[in-house]
Known about the structure:
This protein is an alpha+beta fold. Helix content is 38%, strand content 23%. The protein has 3 helices and 10 strands; from the N terminus they run H-H-H-E-E-E-E-E-E-E-E-E-E. It has helices spanning 8-23, 29-41, 45-81; strands at 86-88, 96-100, 107-108, 119-124, 127-132, 139-141, 144-145, 150-152, 157-160, 163-168. The strands form 2 sheets. Strands 1-10-9-6-7 form a 5-stranded mixed sheet, with no helix packed on it. Strand 4 and strand 5 form a beta hairpin. It is rod-shaped.
Amino acid sequence: MVADRASDADRERALAEVGSGFVAGRLSYETFTQRRVQALQARTTAELRGLVADLHRRRRLAAAASAAGRRVLQSADRLLRRRAPSLPLPPGAPRRFTIGRELACDVTLADDSVSRWHASLQRGPDGWLLADLGSTNGTRLNGWRVTSPSPVEAGDVVTFGGVTFVLADRPR
């Protein structure tokens, strides 16, 4: 079998791909300079293909990872945008109310992912603060885990374990 002799155009294409790989951060400077020299010295198209083959694989892997990341973000977006029931912030008194599975809580949620005393909402001088009460499955505010009292307002998405609500000024 006779190998295809590399033309100047073949070398230029290989040099362009090696340069693109370097610019994209897929090659170190040392590897970039070595491959440029090898491309200029290559006699066959097979040698040139060997210089850029891993760049094609990395590009495909990066594209697959990017597509997977987009799917995860789209799923999370759909989850947050779905019509969750509203949890009205009570007007006037009380200054604090609790959320959990315990019947003594102000808001009782009958879900196994919710702790007995899961979270609290407390009215402060500047509005409401959401706090996790040491729950097992955590409290989230707009997708972020609550680790310290966090300010909330109407329209925020809150999740207690696996139960999600949208905070509202008044009941819908």
